[in-house]
Design a protein that fits this description.
Elements (H helix, E strand, L loop, with lengths): L1 E2 L7 H5 L2 H28 E2 L12 E2 L17 E9 L5 E8 L2 E12 L5 E10 L2 H13 L6 E9 L5 H6 L18 H4 L11 E9 L19 E2 L1 H40 E2 L1
Parallel strand pairs: 3-4, 7-9
Antiparallel strand pairs: 1-11, 2-10, 4-6, 4-8, 5-6, 6-7, 8-9
Helix pairs in contact: 2-6
Length: about 280
């Protein structure tokens, strides 16, 4: 048996062949797509608390950014605002189980009739106290004054809370805590309109509520801090971004592996052809 030496094909020469150059272009295109998806996931991982409707600490009239009968959108939430009108004497209530800087207590809330647009109401969180009896007495005193004189109130506009099961039961019939009824716990506009005596189907209501900056002397102001604007990381999106980077690298590696397999097969075939029996 004799053998003839043949010149070995190099991996580089296989890579430079037109079909493998075309395959490389395809692999790079796929890798680029994966990299773009990774960048998109990385951008989603970083969420900013910046409010898009200007600065929330700039006081803006309520009717300039919010509309009655509509939900509070992200660009409106926590906006500091002013509104003119008067409190409705029959619209004062008490909410229980309300935390204020981590301490449980009670809110005194009221129904505010705004001047513009007419026949429109706004739920207002007036103040907080840890003493339930004090909250009840304060609400009774405010209610005894009847409809108050026109005034302009200032505070932070927040989205309504969802009613809970206890509130749903309390909202049937005459439930006013001032009359010895059940005590609600959530600042739900949907529940409040069912217990406000001076509210009918033709009236409108704002979808959010206002937390007053200044509380009556008997109460403490309700904590309503400025929204958190710190940058937060979503680690799940970061994990997805890393996965796309791995996929991009794998696309290029797969091309290299295919080229190397082709090179190895060619050399094996050359070695077999070189053997002469």
């Amino acid at each position: 048996m004799s053998s003839t030496e043949t010149k070995k094909t190099t991996v580089g020469s296989v890579m430079r062949r037109p079909r493998w150059i075309a395959a490389l272009v395809l692999a790079l295109a796929i890798a680029g797509g994966f990299a773009a998806l990774g960048q998109w996931q990385l951008e989603r991982a970083v969420s900013s608390g910046e409010v898009t409707y200007g600065q929330t600490e700039t006081v803006i009239p309520l009717d300039e950014f919010a509309t009655p009968q509509t939900p509070v959108v992200e660009t409106q939430a926590a906006q500091r605002t002013t509104v003119s009108g008067h409190f409705v004497g029959s619209g004062y209530e008490i909410l229980g189980d309300r935390l204020n800087d981590g301490t449980s207590g009670y809110w005194v809330i009221g129904q505010f009739a705004v001047d513009q647009p007419a026949d429109t109401y706004l739920a207002v969180a007036i103040g907080w106290t840890p003493d339930g009896d004090l909250a009840r007495r304060t609400a009774e005193q405010l209610a005894a004054n009847g409809d108050t004189v026109p005034e302009t109130i200032e505070g932070r506009y927040l989205p309504t809370e969802a009613p809970n099961t206890k509130d749903a039961k309390a909202a049937t019939g005459d439930i006013s805590p001032l009359l010895g009824g059940s005590l609600q716990t959530s600042m739900s506009v949907a529940s409040l309109v069912n217990v406000w005596p001076e509210f009918d189907a033709a009236a409108d209501v704002y979808g959010g509520y206002l937390v007053l900056d200044q509380a009556p002397d008997a109460l403490q102001p309700i904590a309503s801090p400025e929204p958190d604007r710190s940058v937060q990381l979503n680690w799940l999106n970061i994990f997805y971004a890393a996965e796309w980077v791995v996929f991009a690298g794998f696309a290029v590696y797969l091309w290299y592996r295919l080229v190397r397999d082709a090179w190895e097969r060619e050399n094996e075939d050359d070695d077999d052809d070189a053997q002469v029996v």
